[in-house]
Amino acid sequence: MASLRVVRRMLCAAAETAAAPTSTSRWERLKKSKAGVWCRSLFSDYKEACREMVVGAWERPVKASVYMTLLGGTWACFHTKPDQSSFEAVVLECSSQLGLLSPWIRNATSDGHVQSLMKLRNEGRLRHVGLGLLSLVYRADYDPDATLYEAQCSNLSVPWRELPQRVLDVGFVGRWWILDSKMKDYDVNEEEFKHLPAHMQVTSPPSVQEVERSERLHKESWLALTVEDEEKDTNVADRKQESVSEESPVKALKQEQTQA
User: Fold this and answer.
1) In three state form, how does the secondary structure of the chain look?
2) What is the pLDDT of residues 26-45, one digit of tens each?
3) Full-model pTM
């Protein structure tokens, strides 16, 4: 009986030791969890995709350069897209430039466009919308803070199909293109030359030789007179005086002989 008890205790101890789980670390349990398996699979997918990109760029460098150029241009256009504050700053700058000119020499197109933008800005009717790579500025009917029923009712708002007719400017690559085109030759009043003949209204740009000659003459006009040039001038003046003094007695003798 004693031997049977010993054997039974030994079998129970062996069963308990076999059933007891092996102690594992926290890092091992984390790797075997669902989140760990998902992260490892995601990392392996990204690793394989990057390897394929490097191999493809090595095998086809022209295609890879075109793609990189397109991506870089898209990134540059997105980050240089102007906002509404920059548009208002440019409008104020253009208005200041026109204000420094006399009304008689302002360009009517530039002045009218800037004045209309300033009026819309003062009335709070300028709106800005970003479209990814470019920005649009358009006019609205009311100020956003107006408490009129027409301004607050969503059913009476301007539909999107009328947006092309209300666009005032397009911002792209850090510039407002319509405003820049309107401000071209803002200090030239074309109304002053409309009474001239047709051949006098059109001016041709100077040639390269004329520009180089004008620049050369302008640079020479700023050069200082050297000492050698001054000495030459004084010598020439002295020689002229000597020749005049030598000729004067000869002339006097000739006059006496003629009188005799």
Assistant:
1) CHHHHHHHHHHHHHHHHHHCCCCCCHHHHHHHCHHHHHHHHHHHHHHHHHHHHHHHHHHCHHHHHHHHHHHHHHHHHHHCCCCHHHHHHHHHHHHHHHHCCCCCCCCHHHHHHHHHHHHHHHCCCEEEEECCCCEEEEECCCCCCCCCHHHHCHHHCCCHHHHHHHEEEEEECCEEHHHHHHCCCCCCCHHHHCCCCHHHHCCCCCCHHHHHHHHHHHHHHCCCCCHHHHHHHHHHHHHHHHHHHHHHHHHHHHHHHHHC
2) 777 777 777 777 887 888 88
3) 0.57
